[in-house]
Amino acid sequence: MTSYSRCKCHPASLGLSILLVAAAACGPGERPPSVVIVVVDSLRADHLHHAGDPRDLSPRLDALAAQATRFSQAGASAPWTTPSVMTLFTGLTPGSHHVDLNDRALDAAVPTLAERFQEAGYRTAAVMPALTLADHFGFDRGFDDFIFATQGHSNVSGPWSISHAIEFLRGHRDEPVFLYVHLWDVHYNYNPPVPHSIRFQAGRPAGPGESDDITALTGPGHHAASLSPERVAWLEGQYAGEILFTDEQVGRLLDELDRLGRTDDTVVVVTSDHGEAFLEHRVMGHTVHLYDEMTHVPLMVRWPGQVAAGRVVAEQVGLVDMMPTLLDLVGIPFAPHLFEGRSLAPLLRSARPEEEGPPVLLGTSRQTMKRGLRTPAWSYQVDLVTGEDELYDLAADPAQRENLADSLTGEASVWRRRLCDRLAQRLPGGEVGIDPLPADLQESLAAGLRTLGYVSPAGSQGGRQSDPVAERRTILQAAGCPVGLASRP
Ligand SMILES: [Zn+2]
What we know:
Elements lengths: L33 E7 L18 H9 L1 E3 L2 E2 L5 H10 L3 H4 L6 E2 L7 H7 L3 E6 L16 E4 L9 H14 L5 E7 L12 H4 L14 H5 L10 H31 L6 E6 L5 E2 L5 E2 L6 H4 E2 L1 E4 L8 E3 L3 E2 L3 H9 L14 H4 L11 E5 L5 E5 L3 E6 L5 E5 L15 H16 L10 E2 L2 H12 L17 H11 L11
Parallel strand pairs: 1-7, 1-8, 2-13, 3-14, 5-6, 5-7
Antiparallel strand pairs: 2-12, 3-11, 4-19, 8-12, 9-10, 15-16, 16-17, 17-18
Helix pairs in contact: 5-8
Bound molecules: zinc ion.
């Protein structure tokens, strides 16, 4: 048997002073567990059969959920790809890692999830099919293999992603691997191949002179109020077809783990970077809102024999928790004070009962400027441009249709104070620097992103600063927070 010395070096020999010591995931000479993370872009939580969708559109993910611990209240920190995946990779929210538009790279001082696994001796790979995940932002850091292609709106890219992932697994079948696979087909435009394109057909397809291109239909801001209910139903049915198609692709990867005999020693995580809207709040697509259709995502973790199978956890968690969770789960030492998220490993091991948990912090700086907090019971958000706030009772109003901010003024002011306190919170590990990309690179990325509908109209980037403390102060002022909170130590 191959000897893996990294299993023996936790954590004392590393000499780190502040560590949360994880339970040993392997003994001397044993291979540590591999980790496979699958992110299905734009997959909203309520569009999986096991989460309540009546259609049979996710059989493989349903079966996986039955073998996994599933988090029914998982939040993405941002409603679009770049800041959300960077949160997954850093354990920091977008306001702290600063990669929240297309103009900045991750501060080199911030350790990434892949770097930590690479340092621990894992063979690491990422399969990235979108410009929003380009290496310029820092997404390539820590990956031995960074497999990247810009797949655009209409390519069928899932087979490309999964084939590369399978090739990587086969090429490193005797090593512990850390594999990140991003699947892009569920992202608009919705054009699943036959037969998935006819499986959930509803409404009315595009007629002569009409388009199914979401960017063309909506324009900047993704507003599409003039779209008829029949056309929206058609687009949503095609979105459902993309989910079924992607479900099959995830199944290919899971089958390969079985074939390689690696299912039992592999932690599999399936989640999404954000959801997708179908005019619930006057918008199609994503990026601009913080409502659940854009920020409530699936999250499941499977590790046979180590993580409870079939358990559903209903406490508030977020993608921000994934980095400390995965390090903790496999036994890589880490310093909790470097993260805004928390380890869910004790919960995954059923070692602790569910608790209330902190609200997840939500935000977007693309096309709109909003910040919010969400718990399973309440959702609160402030528009940083207009100053208007919104409060929703999620138990009574899960669709977030009745804004209670004006009727429950006392409750709303408590939530604004909670949001202000959260926005003012500084990282115990120190402020993360802002690393602007060169101007020519910013422009070329912006040009590419415009083809994906990621447009930043003039004025939407207000408040951007070169100094993180000044930027935090600007956001707090825009959110109507008390003067002085920004300078609080
Ligand atoms: Zn995305």
